[in-house]
Write a structure and sequence with these properties.
250 residues, alpha/beta, 8-stranded mixed sheet, 9 helices, 34% helix, globular
């Protein structure tokens, strides 16, 4: 399908990039993405994806907007307090790009519920859901883009164990939930750190959709906000992993 004059004007900065061009923009317009969690990571990530022209975005979140969210969840304003996060964010995405089709699920995602996206973005803040999303992505042959942030640090990775044989899944990285897992509501988080992580998650998603560059498959990008340092760590597949290992039947 040919791009309309309005789409050519909107996406011309991407069209100028040899790694994306017109064909890449067409891939973006046809892409379907599911975002689980619409807070400090999922919200800004969704805004960048909608602006880039991703055709369909599915949003999952049971929360409503709270005043304490506004320090870092820049997709919301004081006028949104008390509203369902998915509905407020959907309106923001549609205002930014009317071509983007947005569906909302104002509830917590669970392993029994289907995801419509070809790519799954894990923007949650608890290990139970992270493990379940990893299992669902692996079993359904979807790529999982994962991010996390707390205090002054953050991390981003791409897990493609259900698509690329021999590559690790999220549970290769985190075999089990830490006994004293820290939540940002308990220990705090710097707002711009969540913005950096969210932007990097969007970047990895755009690379996956357009086939550009080298996604963070088998690698973790770790941000030290206080030191101003970002480094990459290689992540091998765990043969004993209960999700993608040899004994899992994968």
């Amino acid at each position: 399908m040919a791009l309309t004059p309005q789409q050519l004007d909107r996406h011309k900065r991407h069209i100028l990039l040899k790694e994306i061009g017109g064909p890449g923009v067409q891939k973006l317009l046809s892409a379907k993405v599911s975002i689980v969690g619409t807070g400090a990571l999922g919200g800004p990530c969704a805004m960048y994806l909608a602006a880039a022209g991703v055709g369909e975005i599915e949003l999952w979140d049971a929360d409503t907007v709270d005043r304490s969210n506004l320090q870092r969840q820049v997709q919301f304003t004081e006028a949104d307090i008390g509203e369902a996060k998915v509905r407020s964010l959907a309106a923001r995405l549609k205002a930014a790009n009317a071509d983007c089709r947005v569906s909302v699920q104002p509830r917590r995602w669970g392993i029994a519920q289907k995801l419509s996206g070809d790519i799954v973005i894990d923007a949650t803040d608890n290990f139970e859901t992270r493990f379940e999303l990893n299992r669902a992505a692996h079993a359904s042959g979807r790529v999982l883009v994962s991010g996390a942030a707390t205090r002054w640090s953050g991390q981003v990775s791409v897990f493609a164990s259900g698509v690329a044989a021999g590559t690790p899944c999220y549970q290769c990285f985190v075999p089990e939930a830490p006994p004293e897992a820290e939540a940002c509501e308990d220990v705090g988080v710097v707002g711009p750190v969540t913005g950096i992580v969210a932007s990097h998650m969007a970047l990895e998603t755009l690379k996956l959709i357009t086939g550009s560059g080298q996604p963070l498959i088998g690698k973790i990008s770790v941000l030290d906000g206080l030191g101003g340092v970002t480094r990459q760590i290689g992540l091998p597949r765990d043969p004993a992993c209960p999700v993608c290992g040899s004994k899992s039947g994968a």
